[in-house]
Amino acid sequence: MILGFIAYINCANVGTAVFNWLLALAGLSSLFTWGSICACHIMFRLAWKAQGHTLDELAFVAPFGVWGSIYGLVLNILCLIAQFYIAIFPEHDKPSALAFFQAYLAAPIVLIFYIVWKIWKKTPFMKPSTIDLETGRRVLDTQELIAEEKAERMARPWWKKLLYELC
What we know:
Shape: elongated
Number of helices: 8
Order of helices and strands: HHHHHHHH
GO molecular function: amino acid transmembrane transporter activity
Structural class: mainly alpha
Keywords: Amino-acid transport, Membrane, Transmembrane, Transmembrane helix, Transport
Number of domains: 2
Transmembrane segments: 22-48, 60-86, 98-117
Number of strands: 0
Membrane topology: Multi-pass membrane protein
Largest sheet: none
Strand content: under 5%
Radius of gyration: 22 Å
Protein name: Amino acid permease/ SLC12A domain-containing protein
Low-confidence stretches: none
Helix content: 55-70%
Mean pLDDT: 86
């Protein structure tokens, strides 16, 4: 927040250069964040299935399941592709390196951080069958939680049941 405030003050005094570069860094961040969340959910569900677990063992499941995450990941990738196209061929300006990096600076930064992290920490790429699903997991009586939730859902009026199914 402080950097954003400093960039905003900079707009009043010097111009928009610092603000534009910070905006270039932050512009695609939500696409990378939500794309990563969708990819992690897909990988978790693949690992959950590969290790012999069922959805009945989970206290909470995504309403649209793994298909919702696939849909979200595809949309994020399409938005990144569209932004890449706009970065290469700006609508009103001539293509330039400055225009490209002001539109797509977050992508190389995220890629560089990811590669540096993989090299520095020497973390392997995981297969669904080798992902650790137990470390840090709270021991809960999942069956009891699921039974309580089902009983609560059955006690709801019909319109709340319909709303739950739709949302």
